[in-house]
UniProtKB/TrEMBL annotation:
GO terms for biological process: bacterial-type flagellum-dependent cell motility; chemotaxis. This is Flagellar motor switch protein FliN. Transmembrane segments: none annotated. Belongs to the FliN/MopA/SpaO family. Pfam families: FliMN_C. It is found in: Cell membrane. GO terms for molecular function: cytoskeletal motor activity. The keyword Plastid does not apply. InterPro entries: FliN-like_C (IPR001543), FliN/MopA/SpaO (IPR051469), FliN_T3SS_HrcQb (IPR001172), SpoA-like_sf (IPR036429).
Length: 93
């Protein structure tokens, strides 16, 4: 058997090497349709959260963690998320 899976503690599980897409939710907006249809470039769409509120991380529609937005040092503006809470996916909590 290939030993490449053993280094990460998931020996024998080929799915541990499959990348997934995580969606980061920073908030929701609920404009009226008429206001949405009138929007132009540079319009402001208010969200239901503040800048310093936690963001939520989802895989599909499943919440997996919460965190705070941060900027990667030395990488001129690239965003990242510092995890502050991780859902216990194995026990469903």
């Amino acid at each position: 058997m290939d030993d490449s899976f053993k280094a990460d503690g998931h020996s024998g599980n080929p799915f541990s090497q499959v990348p997934i897409e995580i969606t980061i939710s920073v908030g929701k907006a609920r404009p009226l349709i008429r206001d949405l249809l009138r929007m132009k470039q540079d319009a402001i769409l208010p969200l239901d959260r503040r800048v310093d509120d936690p963001v939520e991380l989802y895989v599909g529609d499943k919440l997996i963690a919460r965190g705070e937005l941060t900027e990667i040092e030395g990488d001129s503006g690239q965003l990242a998320v510092r995890l502050t809470e991780v859902v216990d996916l194995q026990n469903g909590l």
